[in-house]
Amino acid sequence: MSQIDGLPPLREVIAEHGLSARKSLGQNFLFDLNLTSRIARAAGPLGEVTVVEVGPGPGGLTRALLAAGARKVVAIERDERCLAALAEIAAHYPGRLEVVPADALAVDMASLVSGPARIVANLPYNIATVLLTGWLETDPWPPWYLSMTLMFQREVAERIVAAPGSKAFGRLGVLAGWRTEARILFDVSRQAFTPPPKVTSSIVQLTPRAEPLPCRARSLSRVTAAAFGQRRKMLRSSLKGIFADPETVLGEVGIEATRRAEEIDVAGFVALANVLDRLGEK
Questions:
Q1: With CB atoms 3.0 to 4.6 Å apart as the test, which of 90, 107, 125, 160 could cross-link to 26 if both were Cys?
Q2: What is the mean pLDDT of each run of 10 residues along the chain (282 residues)?
Q3: φ and ψ at 62, to 5 degrees?
Q4: Which of 156, 109, 91 is nearest to 128 (CA)?
Q5: CB under 8 Å to 219, separation ≥6 — which residues?
Q6: 109: three-class secondary structure by DSSP
Q7: Chain centroid to CA 131: how far?
């Protein structure tokens, strides 16, 4: 598929504007419009929602989202070199593309949308995990978005969907499992990018749970950071940084003090976070 919308092929756009992916910005451009269209379709119905896209670059995925019928796309891009290319897309789709020239880490994305929204993005690799953690920890819940369809390095994707007991299970798996249903949709070959990254990527979809187990996100983050920060240690040792008497706390919630973090399910971490709140320790 060389064209989906009457705009020039992406390689011509890149050449015209003198763009090249910058490693410092975590950029890897997608030229394959078959692939970007597949991502747009996987994101779910777009005709009645605003799509928030982070790191659109020259606009490959942006074009696919608009061609797929997105009511509106809000694209957040910090690289000023890409703004002219995005402006051409906005002119082709009058009133449907809003480009926000800013650092996504500093933007209140909820304030950019009104009504139902979906997050769809080929995230810059260097900020992908930080962005996802922020979206998972947002309050109030249910959040401002209906779903997230995001690209990550395969290793990160596996951590997001990991189950207790697996080597990949960690803080991301707890947060994602607590508040969302997460699944890997499909892999993306490194050859699909320019320049090709060193690893395979994956598209992950996360759908918010309407009623996750009651818990404060901040407290759950503190517990998981302590537990997985020293994941080779037993919990009675790794939790000393946040509990004065970890063994008593673990006994209270029915967790053996000799267990390790990757052996504990989401409900167990939620129970520990609620005890932390109640005790108000450290």
A1: 125
A2: 75 80 66 90 97 94 96 96 95 97 96 96 91 96 97 96 96 98 94 79 97 96 95 94 96 97 97 95 56
A3: -55, -50
A4: 156
A5: 273, 274, 276, 277
A6: helix
A7: 6
- CA–CA distance, 175 with 148 (Å, rounded to integer): 14
Would strands 201-208 and 180-188 be described as parallel, antiparallel, or unpaired? antiparallel
Token code pair at residue 233: 């240690």
Say which residue the tokens 């910005």 belong to. 25
Quote the percentage of the chain above a pLDDT of 90: 80
Name the residue type at position 71. R
Sign of CA dihedral 56, 61, 63, 65: negative
Helix (H, G, I), strand (E, B) or coil at 111: helix
Give phi and psi for 201, each to the nearest 5: -110, 165
- At 132-187, the pLDDT tens digits run 999 999 999 999 999 999 999 999 999 999 999 999 999 999 999 999 999 999 99
Residue 103 burial (CB count, 10 A):
10
What whole-number distance in Å separates Cα of residue 37 and Cα of residue 43?
A: 10
Dihedral sign of CA atoms 210, 214, 216, 217 in order: negative
Buried b (16+ CB within 10 A) or exposed e, 132-149: bbebbbbeeeebbbbbbb
Domains identified in the chain and CATH numbers: 10-208 (3.40.50.150), 217-279 (1.10.8.100)
pLDDT digits (tens, 9 = 90+) for 245-258: 999 999 999 999 99
Contacts (Cβ under 8 Å, ≥6 apart) of 191: none
Distance of alpha carbon 277 from alpha carbon 218, whole angstroms: 10
Q: Note whether 171 and 236 are within 8 A (CB).
A: no
pTM, to two decimals: 0.93
- Please give the single-letter amino acid code of residue 153: Q
